């Protein structure tokens, strides 16, 4: 429901799957359609195994291909960092940009999991927003999602300033010191920021600075592209992003890796023969 729910399983045809894909294109990206397609394909595979359908039509009508331009990245990072000075929630974006964390992971961060002296962020939970449960905390997407991320100096400095501003605001409001489990990013009463609200505010900000194509998730893609461009190995990038396996990172960012193997030749040339 609502696209295929009224169709009898045995009457489902490849054309129905194609029509489903077409209707979804108006609201979601090809990557999301692919996820939905795989779920339906698994269900139909089980149905075929139990003789509920004669064939799995998802095998006959593939999901739409994901185009590289769906992973839009920021081309001028210094310019974006400068522009962020005018955005109220700039520290949220700076964390995402320089750690590759997902929005839900950033908004779930607590000061008890941020070590500014050792320059480490510990990702232990995430925030999600659904119609059924509202805003709530949950474990990371996978076991690999629980990870430690080393922070660059620019992020450490930004978070020190953010903590200072947060403490000053609490003093002005008479709220006292920060609790041990205080969130980095919260409302005045300490409640977490809603992911959907932050995402909407980001889109408004991105349009204002002339980057309407840059979604908040694009900051994660930008971080990955920077690491790839600097020659960081795929295993390290995968762990930093919290991917379950390195091959997920490869599939997602294969188009960003250098298209020539000049580095390999240079490495051999550097050897002493």
Structure description:
With 273 residues, this protein is mainly α. The chain is 46% helix and 7% strand. It has eleven helices and five strands. It has helices spanning 14-24, 30-49, 77-83, 90-99, 103-107, 153-173, 195-208, 217-229, 234-241, 246-253, 262-269, and strands at 114-115, 120-123, 126-130, 134-138, 147-150. The strands form two sheets. A three-stranded antiparallel β-sheet has the order 1-2-5, with no helix packed on it. Strands 3-4 form a two-stranded antiparallel sheet. Helix 4 (90-99) packs antiparallel against helix 6 (153-173) and helix 9 (234-241) crosses helix 10. The longest helix is centred in the middle third of the chain and has 21 residues, at 153-173. It is globular. The N and C termini lie far apart (66 Å). The mean pLDDT is 89.
Show the helix and strand layout.
Blueprint: H1 14-24, H2 30-49, H3 77-83, H4 90-99, H5 103-107, E1 114-115, E2 120-123, E3 126-130, E4 134-138, E5 147-150, H6 153-173, H7 195-208, H8 217-229, H9 234-241, H10 246-253, H11 262-269
Antiparallel strand pairs: 1-2, 2-5, 3-4
């Amino acid at each position: 429901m609502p696209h295929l729910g009224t169709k009898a399983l045995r009457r489902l045809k490849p054309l129905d799957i194609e029509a489903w894909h077409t209707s979804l294109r108006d609201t979601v990206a090809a990557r999301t359609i692919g996820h939905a397609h795989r779920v339906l394909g698994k269900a139909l595979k089980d149905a075929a195994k139990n003789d509920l359908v004669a064939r799995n039509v998802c095998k006959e009508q593939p999901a739409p291909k994901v185009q590289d331009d769906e992973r839009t990245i920021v081309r001028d990072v210094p310019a974006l960092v400068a522009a962020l000075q005018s955005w109220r929630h700039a520290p949220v974006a700076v964390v995402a940009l320089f750690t590759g964390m997902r929005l839900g992971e950033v908004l779930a961060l607590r000061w008890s999991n941020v070590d500014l002296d050792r320059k480490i962020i510990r990702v232990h939970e995430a925030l999600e927003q659904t119609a059924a449960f509202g805003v709530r905390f949950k474990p990371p997407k996978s076991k690999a999602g629980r990870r430690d991320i080393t922070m660059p100096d620019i992020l450490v400095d930004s978070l020190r300033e953010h903590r200072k501003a947060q403490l000053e605001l609490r003093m002005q409001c008479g709220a006292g010191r920060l609790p041990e489990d205080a969130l980095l990013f919260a409302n005045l009463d300490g409640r977490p920021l809603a992911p959907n609200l932050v995402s909407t505010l980001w889109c408004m900000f991105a349009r204002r600075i002339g980057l309407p194509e840059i979604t908040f998730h694009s900051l994660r893609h930008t971080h990955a592209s920077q690491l790839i461009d600097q020659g960081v190995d795929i295993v390290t990038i995968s762990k930093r992003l919290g991917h379950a396996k390195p091959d997920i990172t490869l599939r997602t960012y294969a188009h960003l890796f250098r298209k020539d193997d000049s580095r390999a030749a240079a490495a051999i040339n550097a050897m002493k023969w």
